[in-house]
Amino acid sequence: MKFNNKLLHIPDNFYKSLPFLLLSQRDMERGNETEFTDFTLLGFFPEFRHIIAMVSIILLIFMVAFTSNTLLILLIWLDSRLHTPMYVLLSQLSLMDLTLTSSIVPKMVANFFSGCRSISFLACGTQIFFSLTVAIAECILITLMCFDRYVAICKPLRYLVIINSRVCLQMVVMPWAGGALTSLGHTLFTLHFHICSPREIPHFFCEVMAVLRIVCEDISAYEKAVVETSILVLLLPLSLILSSYALIFLAILRVKSPEGRNKALATCLSHLCVVGLYFGPGMCIYMRPSAAKTPKLNQGLFLFGTVLTPLLNPLVYSLRNKEVLSALKKLLERCRSSRKG
């Protein structure tokens, strides 16, 4: 049977170009398969002898941090005396800690005990997104917490006017929105690069800079942009925090009442401890010369930020705060009375 090319409107050069069309389609399919295959997490400190004990301790710390942050959020939500902007912002900080540690530690522990070090493309993107979102959101939130303390101490008579319910809601939404939008752009841009085989990430989770190390393209300009953005995200809030605390301490020195001065100092010291816990590791990771960025040190700093910081944050506020301890006693009394009834 013969076909008439004129009736079918098939150009003469179609048959010559057909092999190339099929080849390009096959290459595209292979490219998609390469882009969406799993990654391998190499873990941390492979030469460490007591790695099982270390991972077990990390799991225990994670469970304590998860419980303490959840309890702190529950106390702030249940006790009407804690429905103030300071404690609302503190509950958001605990929620960010829960988000960060829950997106990293369970997968890390599961990979270690199962012996399977792989992580899917989607799970890796999820870890990058949440780790960047929380990192950026925490910097914004801690700065807003400092502004709240500045208004409460330096302008106490106008506090309820300046930090009203609408402003408080904006202070809650702003860090999450800013962190999520910035993180989404970095996550999509990072994962669109061609990854070299065998797609092994030299880290215990999908950290953005670790993923960029196994990219097969020249991304020096993008890496520089990521570092510059990180420095801006760290230095700008930190400069605002230090400036605010300089004014806060000057205002505290003018307070005549010893009780009022001690209460203001206790609140400020708790917040300054949180500032050190969050900004310290970040500055050590992103503000050192490139020659000093050893993988082991970076992994240790990330381990501190994702495991220990979520544990220390609720302890710093709860053990030094009479209102939180009072709310905890009230909750325990409720539980006892309900059991007896």
Written overview of the protein:
The chain has 341 residues and is mostly helical. The protein has helices at 5-8, 14-35, 51-78, 85-114, 121-154, 159-162, 165-191, 208-212, 220-253, 258-286, 295-319, 322-340, and strands spanning 39-41, 118-119, 200-201. 77% of the residues lie in helices and 2% in strands. Strands 2-1-3 form a three-stranded mixed beta sheet. The model is unreliable at 1-8 and 14-35 (pLDDT under 50).
Radius of gyration: 26 Å
What structural class should be given to the helix and strand makeup? mainly alpha
Mean pLDDT: 81
Strand order of the largest sheet: 2-1-3
**Binned strand content:** under 5%
User: Strand-and-helix sequence, N→C?
Assistant: HHEHHEHHHEHHHHH
* Low-confidence parts: 1-8, 14-35
Number of separate helices: 12
Number of strands: 3
Please give the alpha-carbon distance between the first and last residues.
91 Å
Report the biggest beta sheet as strand number plus sense, adding barrel if it closes: 3 strands, mixed
Please state the oligomeric state of the protein chains shown: single chain
- The dominant shape is globular
Helix content: over 70%
